[in-house]
Amino acid sequence: MNLQRVLTVAVLLGSSTSVAVEPPWGKAENLGQRMLLEATSVCTDGKGHYVVAVPREETEDLEERLFYGDGKELLVVPRPPGFLPGTLFMDPRFFNRNGTPDYQGTDLRVHSEVSVDAKERTCSLRCGERKVALEMLPGTAARELLRKATYAPNPQKYVPHALLRDSNGTYYYVDKGFTAEESRNFRVFIGPRGDLKPQKMTNVVADSEGEIFTTKKGQLRLVIDRAQTPVWIENPRKEVTLRNVPVEQNLPLIYNELGVYTGIRLGTPCDDQ
Q1: Phi, psi for residue 198 in degrees, rounded to 5
Q2: Taking a C-beta distance cutoff of 8 angstroms, is the pair 191, 171 a contact?
Q3: Integer Cα distance of 38 and 26 in angstroms
Q4: pLDDT at 60
Q5: Per-residue b/e over 109-128, b at no fewer than 16 CB within 10 Å?
Q6: What's the rounded Cα separation, in Å, for the pair 211 and 209?
Q7: Closest CA to 6 of 94, 108, 86
């Protein structure tokens, strides 16, 4: 068993669209798998929401992992980048002003956290600056829940790709598919803050020189060489110069204020907080 196994996705028999993720302990058929299952903590807020914290297992090359759900279905919570602990997860809807803005290239202010002390049998959740007390399930109840639950990939479909705006406050936003396989699947939204509208895409050109997103209303031209200026071209006579708005520094704006992701679930323990 290794980390890659955690992310193995298998198509369920009898369904062409449903997918399942194999949990880190597989089917708990051998001693190592059963020990990992027993060492995994399950915490709840008492309202039908469960956080599963899989501990780090150096002998199995397994990093800390989180799952979240209603107990019947548990979703993979994406790990943070680099060597950050798996109890951290990015959720830009919640902002921590006291977090580190640049920790080895990662903005911890948009990361929330689950804290688990297996020995003291305590756990808690922090969403941005808000702290939520959780209760750890007893071992027997936790194992029963983990054995009966189904496991699924994270539900996010898109992630930010580019954000621009003109001098009148109109935003031009591009996102792309969440997974590596869908990373060339782009969408374009245009409008004022809080009311961006999806554009009907007719063509996408993406190469080493830049990207051109063609919609029914016009073309959004982005360039890899940031010395050049991105533009929105509605017709040969109307060309609007745009300003790049750094995505990484504006994730709370993107998720909370543009209107593109209003009401969306990110499959994190903060979805219901």
Answers
A1: -65, 145
A2: yes
A3: 13
A4: 57
A5: bbbbbbebeeeeeebbbbbb
A6: 7
A7: 86
Task: Give residue 224's pLDDT.
Answer: 61
Whole-angstrom distance, CA of residue 176 vs CA of residue 159:
6
Alpha-carbon distance 9 to 20, whole Å? 6
Helix, coil or strand: residue 152:
strand
SS3 of residue 242 by DSSP:
coil
pLDDT at 148: 97
**Which residues, other chains included, contact 64 with Cβ-Cβ below 8 Å and sequence gap of 6+?**
53, 54, 55, 56, 79, 85, 86, 87
Tokens encoding 143: 């194992």
55 vs 66, 108, 168, 222, 269, CA distance in Å?
9, 21, 50, 42, 17
Contact 194, 258 (CB under 8 A): yes
CB hemisphere CA count around 220 (13 angstroms):
28
Token pair of 24 as six digits: 């880190």
Mean pLDDT for each consecutive 10-residue tract of the chain (273 residues)? 33 43 93 94 97 80 87 96 92 97 94 96 97 97 97 97 95 96 94 96 88 91 74 86 94 98 96 95
CB 188 within 8 A of CB 260: no
Rg (CA), the chain: 21
**What was the pLDDT predicted at 129?**
97
Contact 267, 155 (CB under 8 A): yes
Nearest 5°: CA angle at 188, between 247 and 196? 80
For residue 48, with 0-12 CB atoms within 10 Å meaning exposed, 13-18 middle and 19 or more buried, which class applies? exposed
Spacing of C-alpha 91 from chain mean position:
7
